[in-house]
Predict the structure.
Amino acid sequence: MKSFPKPFLLLLAALFALMPVLPSLAAPPLPRPRPDHDAQPEPPPVAPGQESDRQKLIRTGFPAGEDSDALMPPDSTEETAADATNLGTTPQSVTLVAEVTENGAKINTGVVWRVFNSVPDKNGNLPMVAKSAQASPTVTLKPGDYVVHVAYGRAQASDSLRVGNKAGTKALILDVGALKLNAAIAGNIPIPAKLQHFDVFTSGSSETDRVPVAEKVGPNDLLTLNAGTYHVVSYFGDQNALVRADLRVEPGHLTDATLYQKAAQVGFKLVTQPGGEAIADIDWAVKGQDGQTVFTNTGTFPMAVLQEGNYTVLATRNGKVYSHPFQIKAGKPQDIEVLVTPS
């Protein structure tokens, strides 16, 4: 395989960032990605009329001058290097095929194809000459050298393509698998779906080496990914309960993983006597053993999710602060009563 120019690598990075999170669907080997209805990241600010092709791609999901899933003909009349060779100039048909593994099952839905000229334009970008959302499109290209890119959910692949003097077929192998995540409290205690989510990163020895792949993934959502190892962070609630794991996605298989949390839900109330009614409009703060605040709230009966450990809760009412130490152990929800100390 030939090496690709730097502009194309930047283009692939932008395409990867735009892939959507997938919902819960049928089991692999061929999970179908959902259409891209997610909000796209904001482009960097530019002066009017100076938006680059790459910024256009980040803003809309399409390179400059291209805004639909229809197959796009070449929009440049410039001669490529290949046109000057003995390959001829008569356009030829090329059929594109995506496979899960080498000589494996073909992907029949949910793919997006893009074909780029291998020669950068005057701005250093690789011009896109064709795009299709068909499973196996047939594109017509002048003889020469191209780069083919196919995306399927968050899985993608690319390869060089030489068009000669006769029709041909180009197969790209995605090595695609799927990942489905869930979480539970140690001891197989279920966690409400609304209280859990996951972030998925590329593997790496440290956080700075990892690249985000998908964020805010819900339980049982199905992610279509290139085969490989991924770093997963499981969040239980919005405070400090999280666990990490490195998971392997194999081509043509579903990795169905449950991550176990050592945490619990906890509720707080300020009372004048044990078992009494909760006093309204209280300012709450929970501090860990290191003195750091992990939770704040204003209300009558706030709820939090905290990982195992020792804490102190502070309840402020009419300028007076009432404190109570407590311990969290992984398990079912519990209530913490803070008693109003007689003045």
About this structure: The chain has three domains: 6-174, 177-261, 263-339. Residues 8-84 have pLDDT under 50 and may be disordered. The radius of gyration is 27 Å.
